[in-house]
From TrEMBL:
PANTHER family: L-THREONINE 3-DEHYDROGENASE. InterPro entries: ADH-like_C, ADH-like_N, GroES-like_sf, NAD(P)-bd_dom_sf, Zn_alcohol_dh. One of its GO terms (molecular function) is oxidoreductase activity. This is Alcohol dehydrogenase catalytic domain-containing protein. Gene3D superfamilies: Medium-chain alcohol dehydrogenases, catalytic domain (3.90.180.10), NAD(P)-binding Rossmann-like Domain (3.40.50.720). Keywords: Membrane, Oxidoreductase, Transmembrane, Transmembrane helix. Residues 25-132 form the Alcohol dehydrogenase-like N-terminal domain. The keyword Transmembrane helix applies. The keyword Ubl conjugation does not apply. The chain crosses the membrane at residues 167-184. Residues 225-302 form the Alcohol dehydrogenase-like C-terminal domain.
Amino acid sequence: MKGLKLISPKVIKKIDLDIPQNIPKGHALIKINIISLCGSDYKLFYGDYSGPCRYPLYFGHEWSGEVVKINDDTSNIKIGDKVTGDCSKWCGNCCLCKEDKNLCSNIEKFGITIDGYSRQYAIVETKYLYVAPMETSFDILALTECFSVALHAIKKIESMLYKKDRCILIIGGGAIGLSIYLLLKFKFNYYNIKLMEIDDCKKDFISKVFDVNFASEKSFEINNSSYSEISKHCNYDIIFEASGNVEAFQQALYLINPNGYIITLGMYPNKNITLSPITLKSIKVHGTIGGTHEFDEVIKFLISNKYEVKKMITHTYGLDDASMGFQVKDKRIKTQISLW
């Protein structure tokens, strides 16, 4: 079999491997069909990832595949099932796992701290697998993790969505930001949403693919000289900061209404920002990470909205030109690599 190994930043090597034969108890052998690239993959490729990571490794944590062997008498998973899986290797035993497995104190990240799925076959513990209906296409199934991260973020403020007059802003027109937009619109039937994207070329491309309302605000600074100055730019009750840009988080603090909610999904670098609006406006800031717990729900959503979500996939590469997938920037939302 073949695999794609990230040796060091900007260096991907195609590797010849033996297909695993010995399947441990409680595990399955998966034929990996497609991996989707996310922001973490790009940062790993360029050496910019700010969290724990290692080189060399097989990258990729958004994937779809088929069960070819299984060694688990207690699982309902069977040979031939189409599956995807968690991006995190959680233990299931620690105190944090009982509350939210995305916060496991022993966590490892597939394709970031341990080997991921950029190989044609992989052994996966069955507790990390999710089965999709057979009619699900592999390319759409490989979007599950991305939408699960988005849904996990939305659930931080789900109880607030019953009031349809609350104005929501999503900062960042990447895959996560658009996943949040599509989930709010088609799953939660919420339409009072705007998207902020500062890249005009990307903004123009998104407008041609999706029916999106864009925010008109530009980057600005305020001072704390008066409460009227602090409040005059406030337009939103809920803001999802999905760009990972620290300046965007600063803008979120300025744009959020008093008593509003900001949900952050990015990994921010260490930079100085003005945090006083959090206190002055009594802002609630929620961090969110991962999508474990949401996969089954998301798979149903993807199937029901397959024509809309398929628009997310803008580029597909193969084993021989996979490195090109990391270099394309224009008109990109979600890039996939087919391993066959």
